[in-house]
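Weekly structure sync, notes
Attendees: PL (lead), two postdocs, one rotation student
Agenda item 3: pending single-chain targets
PL asked that the sequence for the first pending target be pasted directly into the notes so everyone works from the same version. It is reproduced below exactly as submitted, 406 residues in total.
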Amino acid sequence: MTDEFYRIRRLPPYVIAEVNAMRAAARAAGEDIIDLGMGNPDLPPPPHVIDKLCEVARKPDAHGYSASKGIPGLRRAQANYYQRRFGVELDPDSEVVVTLGSKEGLANLAQAITAPGDVVLAPNPSYPIHTFGFIIAGASIRSVPTTPDERYFEALERAVRFTVPKPSVLVVGYPSNPTAEVVDLAFYTRLVAFAKEHGLWVLSDLAYSEIYFDGQPTPSILQAPGARDVAVEFTSMSKTYSMAGWRMGFAVGNKTLIAALTRVKSYLDYGAFTPIQAAAVAAINGPQDIVENNRQLYKRRRDVMVESFGRAGWDIPPPRASMFAWAPLPPALAHLGSLEFSKQLLTHAGVAVAPGVGYGEDGEGFVRIAMVENEQRIRQAARNVKRYLSSMGVNTPARGARAERC
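Predicted structure, written out during the meeting:
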């Protein structure tokens, strides 16, 4: 008997878990930790969604097995959302499947379409499931950049030309977690054409579709001509409706990929609890005030964070979308590396952030900051950071009286 299991051997220690364990220990010891590490929304879902959950849960027949691919009303609601938001028509029966959050959907699709030895193109840095979902399935990963510029397409060209065996899947995710980078429809149009030319399936992660700033709505890859020939897209209700713990997500698009995911899921789960699915229908079909309100709230938090951390001596580029900022380490402390810097920030400033190296080797030199605390707490985090930087000999910018308040 051995405990050297094949798939476990393929998983390295989860770097971000080190900081999470330190945070948990500090809180257990009574310390006040401002948690800007995990992207866990601090806002509640709309009241009418919770009311619908309770209403359906009171029905005697609501507690049996549900539908693995999602109840019909929820699949129709998601199809209607794509029509309203992106002008994309979907068949709710063959082009939509409900997932237990987008993370589960990505992992199970990887199991469905990947064989040991297959090569998958995935961005680096990237949300871990984009790579490790396929690694668990036995694939090999070839990294491509996250930044959607000409260098990105040059990397794709090299990958399909020189990789053996030829890559079969390309993973993209914009707005990016962790880098918060965004793309336009022209990018997706070019990407779809590339995928069709080289026989690649494309998996698009659009979890932050509704958290965009400065008046620039994020597009869907399915808006690009021919996208449904090669692509599926994953979305989530976690951030849009503040329903992270409900584990509600969707995969939509190419019928072949949706059928493969549906078949695998049919062996693994019976779908989410029916009252949760009914409440998700109420969220998508009901008043959408929360979507705009959350967008504006995250924008205010972004602006407060950029301003107050800048006054503290740490310049952070303002993200154009998502609930994260991708922040380079203060130059004077870059030698620490992202993991050690994150540990020191937690220990000496009481502020938790996620080390960039946890999202891939190209994330080294950065940390991800989640905007999941209120504005007052963000300003307090900035004051704590300022004291830490001063203790490390990092000079804060001299801005007269304004420099005294973060």
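Discussion points:
- Residues 289-312 form the longest helix (24 residues).
- The domain at 51-285 is CATH 3.40.640.10 (Aspartate Aminotransferase; domain 2).
Action: rotation student to compare against the earlier draft before next sync.
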